[in-house]
UniProtKB/TrEMBL annotation, chain A:
The UniProt record lists the keyword Hydrolase: yes
UniProt similarity note: Belongs to the cyclic nucleotide phosphodiesterase class-III family.
GO terms, molecular function: hydrolase activity; metal ion binding
Domain Calcineurin-like phosphoesterase: 53-223
Pfam families: Metallophos
Name of the protein described by the UniProt record: Calcineurin-like phosphoesterase
Keywords, comma-separated and alphabetical: Hydrolase, Iron, Metal-binding, Signal
Signal peptide (residue range): 1-19
TrEMBL record, chain B:
PROSITE patterns in the cross-refs: PROKAR_LIPOPROTEIN (PS51257)
Protein name per the record: Outer membrane protein beta-barrel domain-containing protein
Length: 266, 201
């Protein structure tokens, strides 16, 4: 009987640890952060850019909290980054608790971080969760005379209905202006991937190649070593970065309109 | 979509109600069998902001099977309609005085189904190759434990007792995430709470 009595305490222990939940599919709870990208972009705008812009591009954390924490620690300890990109797939199933889990870890960065939507993040109610927590899925921000054009390229999650990536939106936003001579694109699924709408691929690549000032288009999704391709072998680099699951991220350095990348393993 | 999904549920409810209203002698036995042993009202517990349902006792009241319908209002996390079927087992019974019975630890298993467009039973086979995503967005399998305190009535009414319970549950997807990142995710972090009231007839 004595052993049984110890067992009685198990539910009490779990009740002490857990939180009430209405559904795994709920779009927000009382603790959910809101408009994270806008807040982070405001924080970034308060920084003073140097001659070299250094960006840590991280991606595909899914729910690997251990490696995500290691990445955050690395960036905080190393220092010297203007900001961090989180280039999609921050969940496995598009669930609120997964978004919150990664947010809590990245919120500990001592540099701003900007989040792009990935294909996994669009499952179930993921689109709603993302829009409320981070903001619009197509958005731009600028830093150091460079315009960063972040957008949804997860065509499969939009049933290849030719709306994603949104070429109309890109035509309007992939543009130089008085303050921004250079442009860098960020989206999760690379054009060469089968998850990208292949009917839109040529137009998409041509748009990036024909727009003056574009330095690169940065993608992730493939969980493999960094690679770069150029459409038809010429033009701007389409960069595909690794995953946090492989304890690797990509450093992008931009100096006077010249962009270089290298992977860092932590 | 929501309305369409509700149709079979409504249909079966109509059949049950129809049987009830016939009230023929031959059906008395059947009626008795389908008259629920419990009415249940639950807060949270991953099947709605509020959920309500009925339950049946089995194995000398050591087990119960219950059917619940849950709802999450827009301002509590987005509008969601959820159906759930629960099975629990109460291995222990502690009498506290004449009026109270405590079931300290009861394993519970349930499935929940979320209705709506975003929640296919499986992913669209026109868009996704077999196995591209392996899970069903609509159907969750949950495991958990409850602790239940039963307040006994004096036998003067049809209500034999009232139970208060707390429940901690996790589901297949949370468990998968924990399994793949056991160093990063604490086991206790994958449990979610719910609290409920049962009226036992």
């Amino acid at each position: 009987m004595r052993n049984y009595k110890l067992l009685y305490l198990l539910p009490l222990f779990l009740f002490g640890c857990g939180a009430a939940e209405f559904s795994p599919n709920q779009k927000f709870d009382s603790d959910s952060p809101e408009n994270v990208n806008a807040t982070q972009i405001t924080a970034l705008s308060r920084k003073t850019p140097g001659a070299v812009i250094r960006i840590a591009v991280s991606s595909d954390t899914h729910t690997d909290y251990e490696d995500s924490r290691a990445f955050v620690n690395y960036v905080n300890t190393q220092g010297g980054f203007d900001f961090v990109m989180l280039n999609g797939d921050i969940t496995n199933f598009g669930l609120l608790t997964e978004f919150e889990g990664i947010y809590k870890i990245y919120a500990k960065l001592n540099t701003p971080f900007i989040t792009v939507v990935g294909n996994h993040d669009e499952n179930a109610e993921g689109n709603h969760v993302f829009r409320r927590m981070f903001g619009e899925q197509n958005f731009t921000f600028s830093y150091g005379g460079i315009k960063f054009v972040c957008h949804d390229s997860n065509s499969r999650e939009h049933t290849f209905d030719h709306t994603t990536p949104d070429l109309g939106w890109l035509q309007q936003n992939l543009t130089q202006d008085a303050d921004n001579k250079f442009i860098v694109g960020f989206s999760h699924v690379p054009p060469i991937d089968a998850d990208f709408d292949q009917d839109l691929r040529l137009k998409y690549e041509e748009l990036f190649n024909s727009t003056p000032g574009v330095l690169a288009s940065v993608h992730s999704h493939r969980h493999s070593a960094d690679s770069i391709y150029r459409a038809k072998g010429a033009g701007i680099p389409f960069i595909i970065t690794n995953t946090i699951l492989n304890r690797t991220f990509t450093v992008i350095e931009i100096t006077n309109g010249k962009l270089s990348t290298h992977p860092v393993t932590f | 979509m929501v309305n369409l999904a509700r149709t079979p549920l409504l249909f079966s409810l109509i059949i049950i109600l129809g049987c009830c209203t016939l009230g023929l002698k031959a059906q008395n036995k059947f009626l008795k069998a389908i008259t629920p042993d419990q009415a249940i009202l639950q807060y949270a517990g991953s099947i709605g902001y509020l959920s309500a349902g009925i339950g049946y006792d089995f194995f000398k009241e050591k087990s119960s099977l219950s059917f619940l319908y849950g709802y999450v209002p827009k301002n509590k996390g987005g509008e969601l309609d959820i159906a759930a079927v629960k099975f629990d087992y109460k291995p222990f019974k502690v009498k506290i005085g004449n009026q109270l019975v405590w079931h300290p630890i009861n394993p519970v298993a349930f499935v929940s189904y979320t209705f709506g467009q975003e929640f296919g039973f499986e992913f669209d086979s026109n868009v996704y190759a077999d196995g591209y995503y392996f899970w069903s967005p609509a159907l969750r399998e949950h495991l958990g434990v409850t602790s239940e305190l039963k307040i006994l009535g004096d036998g003067s009414t049809k209500i034999r007792s009232i139970s208060l319970y707390a429940e901690a549950n996790t589901n297949d997807l949370y468990a998968i995430n924990w399994y793949h990142d056991r160093k990063g995710i604490a086991f206790t972090d994958i449990f979610r709470l719910g609290f409920g009231l049962k009226v036992n007839f």
